[in-house]
Amino acid sequence: MERITFEQLPQAVSTLIERVEQLAGKVDEVLCKAAGKDTGRRNLLSLDEVAALLGKSASTIYAMTSEKRIPYRKRGNKLYFFEDEVMQWIEQGGTSGTGGEEDFNRRLEALRSGKKRKPGSLQNNR
User: Fold this and answer.
1) CATH topology of domain 44-95
2) Where in this chain does the entry annotate a coiled-coil region (predicted)?
3) CA distances (Å), 22 to each of 7, 15, 27, 37, 90, in order?
4) Nearest to 82 by CA among 39, 37, 50, 36
5) Are 14 and 20 in contact (CB under 8 A)?
6) 0.85 cut: is pTM over it?
């Protein structure tokens, strides 16, 4: 490589900038292709990460899972959340897709009608 004189400096810097931009473009292409590949693995979130994502406390997330209001998986005593499912749930407005209040009321009425009560004679003899 020959030495660059002071007079050649502006052109040398210009050439250097062009080459760096070309390299940066190629690096971006490679990174985008690598990021675009589906590895088949889903990103798991912890309870604390889901709580932070939703701006809720961990106990609120526990309550939401027990009421099946948020998508989750459970293995033993451990709760698992898939990021894509949680994001889709958020995009759907935070509904579990189970029918909402109408479904809840229908199930509640079915439970009430199926409940057996003590005969009136037993309730009065306390």
Assistant:
1) Multidrug-efflux Transporter Regulator; Chain: A; Domain 2 (1.10.1660)
2) none
3) 25, 11, 9, 23, 40
4) 50
5) no
6) no
Tokens of 57: 């406390």
Nearest Cα to Cα of residue 16 among 26, 8, 28: 8
Q: What angle do CA 89, 94, 95 make, to 5 degrees?
A: 90
Cα separation, 6 vs 85, in Å, equals 60
Q: In angstroms, how far is the first alpha carbon of the chain from the final one?
A: 106
Residue 111: the pLDDT is: 75
pLDDT digits (tens, 9 = 90+) for 107-119: 777 777 776 666 6
- pLDDT value at position 97? 54
